[in-house]
């Protein structure tokens, strides 16, 4: 049975001591493909290194809203040049973050819009980071015609109303560890209503660790726990859910 972790950070410092073992554990757990996310000046090169080293690890490259203030003139060109690499499958994670006050909103908006424009130019899907900014994220996606390329709402945390707007724009919704939490009513309700052909799963490791490991470091092997929880919500077997989300990811990211 194949699993696809569509959003992970295996290059994070939390894995410096045992990265190879973490990756091996994911493969043993049935995770046959992963997308590592390079989101700033430090993590884009390390993401590319992982994608070049492992056949089954792919890359997304973009500029995270928390780091928007640090984006320089040539960085968009750098991202554009990497998008021609055969292992780069998306631009991301990009978007807005109103929770961490690290970059002014106007700067985040500008960087977000530029990257959507680049993705449309290159016909690449985008991976969206949206924290406490649902209204503005959807508005900018509409204004910048992101429906022409689509992409993924990573670790989706909005309401069903927001989810419907994202689905209408041609986006897939991706869910991770929070759907395993007892108190996570909204993500579970949204997942229950999300069409199976628009559903993806992820870990966002080393963050958002699923139950029963909550509070510990997350890793890609735990995407199986996400698949099991999602399958229970959908009323199907976890194997069926794994198969569906694997096929969805291959199609969404244009992976053969």
Task: Produce the secondary structure layout.
Layout: E1 3-8, H1 19-28, E2 31-38, H2 43-53, E3 57-61, H3 75-82, E4 88-97, H4 105-122, E5 126-131, H5 134-143, E6 151-153, H6 160-168, E7 171-175, H7 185-193, E8 199-201, H8 223-234, H9 238-252
Parallel strand pairs: 1-2, 2-3, 3-4, 4-5, 5-6, 6-7, 7-8
Helix pairs in contact: 8-9
What does this structure look like?
It comes from Paenibacillus agri. The chain has 256 residues and is α/β, with parallel strands linked by helices. The protein has one domain: Metal-dependent hydrolases (TIM Barrel, Alpha-Beta Barrel). It is 40% helix and 18% strand. The protein has 9 helices and 8 strands. Strands 1-2-3-4-5-6-7-8 form an 8-stranded parallel sheet. Helix 4 links the parallel strand 4 and strand 5. Helix 8 packs across helix 9. It is globular, with a radius of gyration of 17 Å. The chain starts with a strand and ends with a helix. 48% of the residues are buried.
Keywords:
9 helices, DNA nuclease activity, globular, 8 strands, TIM Barrel, TatD family hydrolase
Radius of gyration: 17 Å
- According to CATH, the homologous superfamily is Metal-dependent hydrolases
CATH architecture: Alpha-Beta Barrel
Largest sheet: 8 strands, parallel
CATH C-level category: Alpha Beta
End-to-end Cα distance: 17 Å
> Based on DSSP secondary structure assignment, what is the total number of beta strands?
8
Q: If helices are DSSP runs of H or I spanning 4 or more residues, what is the number of helices?
A: 9
Strand order of the largest sheet: 1-2-3-4-5-6-7-8
- Indicate the low-confidence ranges by residue numbers: none
Helix content: 25-40%
Number of domains: 1
Strand content: 15-25%
CATH topology: TIM Barrel
Shape: globular
Secondary-structure class: alpha/beta
Q: Name the average pLDDT.
A: 97
H/E series, N to C? Answer: EHEHEHEHEHEHEHEHH
């Amino acid at each position: 049975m194949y699993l696809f972790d569509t959003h992970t950070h295996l290059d994070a410092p939390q894995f410096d001591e045992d990265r190879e073992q973490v990756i091996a554990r994911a493969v043993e757990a049935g995770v046959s493909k992963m997308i590592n996310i390079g989101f700033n000046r430090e993590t884009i090169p390390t993401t590319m290194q992982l994608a070049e080293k492992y056949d089954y690890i792919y890359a997304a490259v973009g500029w995270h809203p928390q780091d928007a203030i640090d984006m320089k003139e040539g960085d968009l060109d750098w991202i554009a040049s990497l998008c021609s690499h055969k292992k780069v499958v998306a631009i991301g994670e990009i978007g807005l973050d109103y929770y961490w006050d690290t970059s002014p909103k106007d700067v985040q908006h500008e960087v977000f819009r530029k990257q959507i424009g680049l993705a449309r130019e290159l016909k690449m899907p985008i991976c969206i980071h949206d924290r406490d900014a649902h209204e503005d994220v959807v508005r900018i996606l509409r204004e910048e015609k992101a429906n022409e390329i689509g992409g993924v709402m990573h670790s989706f945390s909005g309401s069903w109303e927001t989810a419907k707007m994202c689905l209408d724009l041609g986006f897939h919704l991706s869910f991770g560890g929070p759907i395993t939490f007892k108190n996570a009513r909204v993500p579970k309700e949204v997942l229950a209503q999300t069409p199976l052909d628009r559903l993806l799963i992820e870990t966002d490791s080393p963050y958002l660790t699923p139950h029963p490991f909550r509070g510990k470091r997350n890793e890609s092997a735990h995407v199986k726990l996400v698949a099991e929880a999602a399958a229970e919500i959908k009323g199907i077997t976890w194997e069926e859910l794994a198969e569906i989300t694997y096929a969805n990811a291959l199609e969404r990211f244009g992976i053969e």
